[in-house]
Sequence to fold (258 residues):
Amino acid sequence: MRICRFTTGEEPAFGLVDGAGKKIAEISGDPLYTRIELTGATHLIEDVRLLAPVIPRSKVVGIGRNYADHAAELGNEVPEQPLMFLIPNTAVVGPGDPVVLPEITQEVSFEGELAVVIGRMCKDVAAEQAQQVVFGYTVANDVTARDLQRGDGQWARAKGMDGFCPLGPWVETELDVTDLRLTTHVDGELRQDGTTADMVHGVAALVEHVSAAFTLLPGDVILTGTPAGVGPVEDGQEVEVEVEGIGALHNRFVRARG
Ligand code: MG
Fold:
């Protein structure tokens, strides 16, 4: 199933998206917590505003340097264990939302990524059991202020600013993510073209490592790292991250004007 969150101008609702990505069948409640029941209402996707398909209840856990070609392009080694950082849920925005480039950074980069949405509270999950706690998958842009990342050492500010974690367009709940093409276009130009098969640590291993450190709650999100090809994004440019089998996430970047 493809589950989206949307608004028609009123309270946000969840819905099932059809295979063509054109129609939404509205469902009642939040599918993370309740059985999926259709309300009977339907919408054309062009008539609604899609929202981030999930608001992480407690955290987004990012994974750094999980593709060897990306680690190398920034002159870094692949860490032996997954390198984790935290992004506050206030950084999450939805498909189509603008990403504001803050005045405190002059070097913002896109990072196209597969995102894992956790379905239930869990801790110390073995890799073999990881599928049982995964609700589904969506697409992320792990937006990074590269200058602040270098200067701060800690990555909290560089990756956690408001709007720096676009998620969407929806959550796909049935998907084999072991070998999916991942592409990023900036204003239509291909910049990243990778496959999730090249992750150093796959999704199951990441769930094991992350849950060894943190209790995960329903709606928490794990970003799985980015392949090579990252680069700066400037005022007015649109970034599209697409993961095969899920869909494409579009966001325009705009410079804050004081
Ligand atoms: Mg990243």
Summary: Residues 60-255 form a domain with the Fumarylacetoacetate hydrolase; domain 2 fold (CATH 3.90.850.10). The chain has four helices and 20 strands.
